[in-house]
Amino acid sequence: MSSPVVTRFAPSPTGYLHIGGGRTALFNWAYARKLGGKMLLRIEDTDRERSTADAIDAIIEGLTWLGLDWAGEPVSQYGRVMRHREVAEQLLAQGKAYRCYCSPQDLEEMRAKAEAEKRPIRYDGTWRDRDPSEAPAGVKPAIRFRAPQEGETVIEDAVQGRVVIPNKDLDDLIILRSDGNPTYNLSVVVDDHDMGVTHIIRGVDHLTNAARQTQIYMAMGWRVPHMSHIPLIHGPDGAKLSKRHGALGVEAYRAMGYLPEAMRNYLARLGWSHGDDEIFSTEQLVEWFNLESIGKSAARFDFAKLENVNGHYIRHTPDASLLAQFVDFLPHAEGGKAMLAQIDDAMMAKLLRAMPGLKERAKTLVELMKGAQFLFAQRPLPMDDKAAQIIRDGGAEALAGLIPLLESAEDWSALALESLVKAHAEAQGLKLGKLAQPLRAALTGTSTSPGIFDVLEVLGRDEALGRLKDQVS
RNA sequence: GCGCCCUUCGUCUAUCGGUUAGGACGACAGCCUUUCACGUUGUAAAGACGGGUUCGACUCCCGUAGGGCGCGCCA
Question: CA-CA to A323 of 20 to 30 Å: which in A245, A294, A310, A361?
Answer without folding.
Answer: A245
